[in-house]
Amino acid sequence: MKSFKTILVIFVIAVLSLYTSGAFAGGGGGRSWADRYDGDGDGKVSKAEFMASFTDRDANGDKSITVDEWNERNITRSDTDGDGKVSVDEFMAPFIAADANKDGVVDSGEAPQRGGGGGKKR
Ligand SMILES: [Ca+2]
Ligand SMILES: [Ca+2]
Ligand SMILES: [Ca+2]
Predict the structure, then answer these.
(1) How far is the CA of 55 from the centre of ligand 2 (A)?
(2) Nearest CA to 76 among 68, 87, 85, 89?
(3) From ligand 2's centre to the CA of 122, what distance in Å?
(4) Which contacts (CB < 8 Å, 24+ apart) does range 81-87 have?
(5) How far is CA 2 from CA 5, 10, 13, 14, 32, in A?
(6) End-to-end distance of the chain based on CA atoms, in angstroms?
(7) Which one of the ligands is nearest to 68 CA?
C-alpha cells in the first residue's frame, strides 16, 4: 500500500502548511490597532499616535479628510454627520469609544479586535 502512505504524507504537509500560513491562527492574522497606529511600538495607541494617522491622511491640512485623501469606504464608515468629509472629531470617535478607562491611551485590551477584515457593519 504505497499510495496510501503517499496520500498520508501529502495530507500531513497540507495540514502543516495551513498551520504555518496562519489559517488556524484566527482570521489570517488580522491587523490590530497597534499594528496600524502604534508609532513607537509600545503596544498601545496614544491619542497623539491616532491623531498622527489623521494628519497623515489629511494631505492639504484642512482638518478634514475627503474622498481624494482617503478611500471612499473608510470615509463613509467614519463620516457620521454625512457631509462627505471626516473631521477630527469623527476620526477620533472610535478612539474615544475604545478608550474604556479614558486615560487617552488605547491598549491591547481596549483596542477593537478585527478578525480578518470587515469589522463592525453599520
Ligand atoms: Ca483634507
Ligand atoms: Ca463629516
Ligand atoms: Ca485606555
Answers:
(1) 16
(2) 85
(3) 16
(4) 87/63
(5) 5, 13, 17, 19, 46
(6) 56
(7) 1
**What residues flank ion ligand 1 with Cβ within 5 A?**
58, 60, 62
pLDDT in tens, 41-77: 999 999 999 999 999 999 999 999 999 999 999 999 9
Which residues are CB-neighbours of 29 under 8 A, at least 6 positions away? 22
Rounded to the nearest whole angstrom, what is the distance from the C-alpha of residue 102 to the centroid of ligand 3? 5
Query: 46 has which bridge partners?
Result: 105
Q: Is the pLDDT confidence value at 18 over 90? A: no
Q: What DSSP string describes 62-118?
A: SSEE-TTTS-HHHHHHH-TT-SSSEEHHHHHHHHHHH-TT-SSEE-TTTSPP-SSS-
CA of 57 from ligand 2 middle (Å) equals 15
